[in-house]
Amino acid sequence: MKRVYIEDSWKDSWKYSYPYDLMEIYGEIKGNEGYAYAYQLRRDATINLIKSIAKPGDKILDVAAAQGNFSLKLAELGYDVTWNDIREDIAEYVEMKRETGKISYKPGNSFEVKFDSLFDVVLATEIIEHVAHPDEFLANLAKLVKPGGYVVISTPLGTYFKNDLPKFSEFADASVFESKQFGPNSDDHIFLLHLDEMSWLSQKAGLEIIDLKYYSNPLTSGHIKLNPFLKILPKKLVFAIESLTQKLPEVIGHRIHNNFAVLFKKPQ
Prior knowledge:
- The protein is of the alpha/beta class.
- It has 10 helices and 7 strands.
- The protein has helices spanning 12-24, 33-53, 69-76, 91-97, 134-143, 195-204, 218-221, 227-230, 235-246, 250-256, and strands spanning 59-62, 80-83, 102-105, 119-125, 145-156, 208-215, 259-265.
- α5 links the parallel β4 and β5.
- The longest helix has 21 residues, at 33-53.
């Protein structure tokens, strides 16, 4: 991935994205260690799930891909990637960072864009928590996947002990949240999905859960006033502790980790 540097002539959407790139891909994380470490865990979890089922050359759609860092990484790994985001003007920024690999650009609402064919894998990271109808969102992702293909999502984990947002399955009519949906920041999260909701959500979408990984404990993400420790602890030690907490029994693990990634398969 090419290193780019901010310029006065850049579009506003590029300037908005650049500080995130500094933390996510360029390693400038001073003061934002928790965000950067949590992002790395999310990226690794989702990319590893894709690598476990997809081969180079497979067609992957990255939905609401923003500044395209997952798209770029997947392209570098040899996948045939389609970048999608509703913000058309950011596509040129993504292409500016591309160094190797193949990426096609299809801006717009992913459920309205006319794609040439169905995909082997559809990826949607940190999106489903921003929609009022996560069941419909997952079902629409499934429609973009060929039979026998896969959907991968990542999202904050509702069973995290610090979560105080509502549970989707507790609402008979989630339309009351429609005016709030599609916000880009964590303050705009609507529901955080729980592990026990994933089974019926997947069934409703016509998908099967193949694998599920939770990650990002309070230290790694800098929660409960632990971010100052990330400034002094070696990164290797932080991730060693993360590795240990991921091995805890599920009854504990899904309470102390704040994010998870899920791999679904669409039947043949």
